[in-house]
Amino acid sequence: MTTSLPARTDVLVVGAGPAGLAAAITLAEAGVDFVLLDRLAEGANTSRACVVHARTLEVLAELGVTERLKEEGVVVPRFTVRDGASVLATVPFGGLPTAFPYTLMVPQERTEAVLLARLREAGGDVRRPYRVTALAGDDTGVTVTVSDADGTPGTVRARYVIGADGMHSTVREQAGIAFTGSSYAESFVLADVRMNWPLARDEVSLHLSPEGVTVVAPLPGAPDRYRVVATVAEAPERPGIADVQSIVDARGPEGGRTRVTEVLWSSRFRVHHRVAEHYRAGRVLLAGDAAHVHSPAGGQGMNTGIQDAVALGRLLARVVAGEPATILDGYETTRRPVATEVVAFTDRMTRMATLRPRPARLLRNTVLKAAFSLPPVRAKLAYQLAELAAR
What CATH number is attached to the domain comprising 133? Predict the structure, then answer.
């Protein structure tokens, strides 16, 4: 059952995924009057994004969230790149200049649950289900038209609106902000499985093969739980045991030793690499997937979005407190370059991983082995994956 909405608020946040929740916590801690809406009747109950990198852990530590997330996750101190039985690169995170020199594997529904609990402690909550249907802005605010579960329309007047409502963002479309880029030809399989994976659970592994790119990462809960992400020419809508088994057999380090025993959850999706042309249109601002989407190689999407949201929440808190609105211009100039670099980086990783001609693959493998034998190269990639440059 939907609850009534206030007629006015300082900040309206649309979308209660990780970015929207992080923005709302930041606003709540600053004492800003806000409303957080989501179109779903309940939060995420599937794992989807599961990688939390060092820079995001630093940001969430300031919100009192990181230690709670660590209780829910698996600490993974290294990243490897492999082609069959050959290890092309090992990238340790242990030397990173951070209090969190590792990657944390946490299913998204647990990340959202921890963020929501923290938001409620700070005095906020999510209003759902509400769907945004229109925005009309002027010099003093934005009038947002919404509909509830029954289709009953209503409006909320906000001084500012944060669109954190995903790749198909209504807020972005209503604000007239272009979302430029393209999509990959292949579909992606995303599956949480139980399997007897032959590699140690202290690494996330990227497997290169002419069949496609595959990422395997450990998940919390049991020693045989793993996330598998793989490009497939035409994936089934709900990949099953046989589908995932064929992927790890063809692309894994020792396919004959891997046996998938259960698919806990799976999905098929298409991946785009796009960035919003602007992060701000007057009093409307974007964060998370509404502002950028890209290949899951590197697991940086949710991380970049959470960092966006906290930075934006802090700026809006300052404006609501009386500072000039021109400081909001700094949001795009600092956060959009981060997104464009992540999009370019993950695109390079994806295309490099899926080379098909044998001579090109042999050359790639030779170059990777030589380059990653050098400590500075390993350190640079670890730093980039961890998004520490976004500080």
Answer: 3.50.50.60
Domain shared by 318 and 172, yes or no: yes
Is 195 within 8 Å of 259 (Cβ atoms)?
Answer: yes
Whole-angstrom distance, CA of residue 199 vs CA of residue 207: 12
Q: Using an 8 Å Cβ cutoff, are 182 and 295 in contact? A: no
Record the tokens describing residue 330, joined without a space: 């700094």
pLDDT digits (tens, 9 = 90+) for 232-280: 888 888 999 999 999 999 999 876 689 999 999 999 988 788 999 999 9
* 137/248 same-domain check: no
Could you tell me if 350 and 295 are in contact, meaning their C-beta atoms sit under 8 angstroms apart?
yes
> Would 95 be classed as within a structural domain?
no
Rounded to 10°, the helix 108-121/18-29 angle is: 20
Residues 222 and 207 both lie in one domain: yes
**What pLDDT is attached to residue 185?**
74
Say yes or no: 231 and 329 in one domain: no
Q: Tell whether 102 is covered by a domain.
A: no
Instruction: Give CA separation, 43 vs 21, 111, 208, 377, in Å.
Output: 11, 11, 34, 40
Radius of gyration for the chain, computed over Cα atoms and rounded to the nearest angstrom:
21
Whether 296 is covered by a domain: the verdict is yes
- Quick check: helix, strand or coil at residue 237? coil
Domain with 341, as residue range(s), is: 8-50+107-178+277-349
Average pLDDT score, the chain: 93
Reported as a single tens digit per residue, the pLDDT across 177-221 is: 999 998 877 788 999 999 999 999 999 999 988 888 899 999 999
What is residue 87's three-state secondary structure?
strand
* 75 domain residue, yes or no: no
Per-residue pLDDT at 47: 58
Bridge partner residues of 276 (DSSP): 179
CB 283 within 8 A of CB 161: yes
Give me the CATH number covering residue 380. 3.30.70.2450
Cβ-in-10-Å burial (0-12, 13-18, 19+) of 201 comes to: middle
Q: Residues 59-99: pLDDT tens digits?
A: 999 999 999 999 999 999 999 999 988 999 999 999 999 99
The tally of domains found in the chain comes to: 2
What integer pLDDT is reported at residue 256 of this predicted model?
63
Q: What is the DSSP letter of 242?
A: H
Provide the pLDDT for residue 1. 39
Q: How large is the average pLDDT for residues 224-232?
A: 94
